[in-house]
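Can anyone check this?
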Amino acid sequence: MVGNMYLYNSKKFLSEHNGTDFYFVLSEILNHNLMKYTDILFACSIGESLSDMRGNHIILDSDWDEPEDFGFIQCYVCEKVGDKMTINEFLSAINYISQKYITEYPNEFDIVQKYVDKIESRYKSFFSSR
């Protein structure tokens, strides 16, 4: 967990906001050094799903067969359907974790804020077009 305290410090918030599986998948990705947090934000900003290649996934809009039907973030844990997060829950989770990350890594504020803004823009505009 050393180096990922920002995520650990977000665990309670995530568990209270339908993000238990979201936390688990992110922690697997980060603890196995598959991606850095800023890489995760970049992937989310383009709608790319996240995976630890071990059966744990966070499915975003780019992986839906019919992207126009996208309405929630789906987590899978050990290839089993896990939590569904609303777009608002997902955006709240990203913002909360990012604030914790910036506290730990203040020199990465600009890049984190850039991606968070892109994520918010992507998902807010996605639903305003319906």
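Reply from J.R.: I decoded it. The CA atoms of residues 35 and 71 lie 25 Å apart.
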